[in-house]
Design goal:
This protein is of the alpha+beta class and 420 residues long. Helices cover 31% and strands 26% of the residues. Strands 3-2-1-4-5 form a 5-stranded parallel beta sheet. The protein has a 5-stranded antiparallel beta sheet with strand order 12-15-18-22-19. A 4-stranded antiparallel beta sheet has the order 6-9-7-8, with helices on both faces. A hairpin with a 4-residue loop joins strand 10 and strand 11. The longest helix is centred in the middle third of the chain and has 21 residues. The protein binds adenosine monophosphate (AMP) and glycine. Glycine binds next to loops.
Length: 420
């Protein structure tokens, strides 16, 4: 079978790596991919959001299954384009991907279906936002309605931070059309977990638990990022996991089906486990990055068989089994991340890192310049360690990290520490 992975990050490198080990896979293609995916797959120079060209390519090469990494192609309707041509793709339709594509849609859906989430007001201007802040109290969270590459959420604790959010949203209009409507919501306190499932629209198969480290600095200091590291398993209590499934994930999938917008593919619930139980922070319509890099190496089963079952409506009665090992992923980011990043810094020590036992390296923002690997984006590499315990896995990851060098390299030194 031929499979196509859409995207160019470390999540897609991990998918291509795992799929290349699936039974019956003769060729893996990645569009557009990166120098890392080139080692395990064939890179195809088509952008991830060029949905029509991707469908042309999949039809031409008789691709059996396509899996989409990032949210943008899904929100743009890649699943609809493929379905219209009878091509198998794992991921929700544009209408279902609105759960991620519009925070207003997601919030209104939660309210309609009684799914626990933070109290919120939808506003369009400063006066309405000020009234919402007054009603909800501080701390308060401002969220741009549309996709904003992980930068559209501001958690405001002080009056100054609220004022800065007002300026950013309503004067600078920093998020353009994505910020025309803004969700102002109550700030929840608790432990955050990433809960990912595979669903065929009715049945669900939970993936292994994972925890993401969103802030740039150690001890959760500094700005929010796309994710600076992840560990799996997360120390998620079985009872809490059951509640997340019953109170959030299953009602979401059932509610979408009930409203005539069946949701198929990966559903990722970002959940705050509060004193009053789990509350939904956000839904992503795809696998998490970097969670995927820590979860997929632990999958015992055949990944392609699971993905095909989700796409074909045949997940009922299936489950995924996981290796008893732990995985830790440490992201190496470039100078300036998550702001404006410097590119083109030479990367050394990759081969030495890969020679370490239990170390995997997945590429994200890298590029080959005259044979030399250089940085080419904010998140540059995901260094993954595997071990019997979280402590072993993190030691392996940091052994790899120590060997990989590039100017301006940034990473957290505390991934997995509180769980080890
Ligand atoms: P989101 O894209 O909605 O997940 O927001 C990004 C990050 O902001 C989340 O992962 C949380 O760390 C934080 N966040 C979002 N909403 C809230 C909330 N209501 N209370 C506390 N933190 C939040
Ligand atoms: N790691 C968070 C995300 O993928 O959105």
């Amino acid at each position: 079978m031929r499979v196509l992975v859409v995207g160019s990050g470390a999540r897609e490198h991990a998918l291509a790596w795992k799929l290349s080990r699936s039974e019956g896979v003769e060729e893996v293609y990645v569009a557009p991919g990166n120098p890392g995916t080139a080692a395990v797959a064939t890179c195809v120079p088509i952008a991830a959001d060029a949905t029509v060209e991707l469908a042309d390519f999949a039809a031409g090469l008789k691709i059996d299954t396509t899996i989409v990494g990032p949210e943008l192609p899904l929100v743009l309707g890649i699943a609809d384009e493929f379905a219209g041509r009878g091509l198998r793709l794992v991921g929700p339709s544009a209408a279902a991907a609105q759960l991620e594509g519009s925070k207003v849609f997601c919030k209104e859906f939660c309210l309609r279906r009684g799914i626990p989430t933070a109290r919120a007001e939808v506003v369009r201007d400063r006066a309405a936002a000020a009234a919402a802040v007054k009603k909800l109290g501080r701390p308060v969270v401002f969220k741009a309605d549309g996709l904003a590459a992980g930068k559209g959420v501001l958690v405001c604790r002080s009056a100054d931070e609220v004022e800065a959010a007002m300026v950013r949203f309503f004067e600078e209009r920093a998020f353009g059309a994505a910020g025309e409507r803004v969700v102002v919501e109550e700030c929840l306190e608790g432990d955050e977990v990433s809960f990912m499932v595979l669903t065929d629209g009715a049945a669900t198969v939970p993936l292994a638990s994972a925890r993401d480290y969103k802030r740039l600095g150690d001890g959760d200091a500094g700005p929010n990022t796309g994710g600076m590291g992840a560990v799996s398993p997360a120390a998620l209590d079985g009872e809490v996991a059951g509640r997340i499934l019953r109170e959030i994930v299953v009602p979401t999938i059932a509610g979408m089906a009930d409203e005539g917008v069946p949701y198929r593919g990966v559903l990722y619930a970002g959940v705050m486990v509060t004193r009053d139980g789990p509350q939904l922070l956000e839904i992503n319509c795809r696998l998490g990055d970097p969670e995927t890099q820590a979860v997929l190496p632990r999958l015992e089963d055949d990944l392609l068989a699971l993905l095909n079952a989700a796409a074909d409506g045949e997940l009922t009665g299936r489950r995924a089994s996981w290796k008893r090992e732990a995985c830790a992923c440490v992201v190496l980011a470039g100078e300036g991340y998550p702001g404006k990043v410097r590119k083109g810094d030479p990367i050394t020590g990759l081969a030495e890192a890969l020679a370490q036992p239990g170390v995997l390296v997945f590429h994200a923002g890298t590029r080959l310049a005259e044979g030399q690997l250089v940085t080419d984006g904010g998140r540059v590499l995901s260094v993954v360690g595997r071990g019997a315990t979280i402590a072993d896995a993190t030691s392996a990851a940091y052994r790899g990290v120590d060997l990989i060098r590039f100017p301006g390299r940034q990473f957290r030194t505390d991934i997995g520490r509180s769980l080890a």
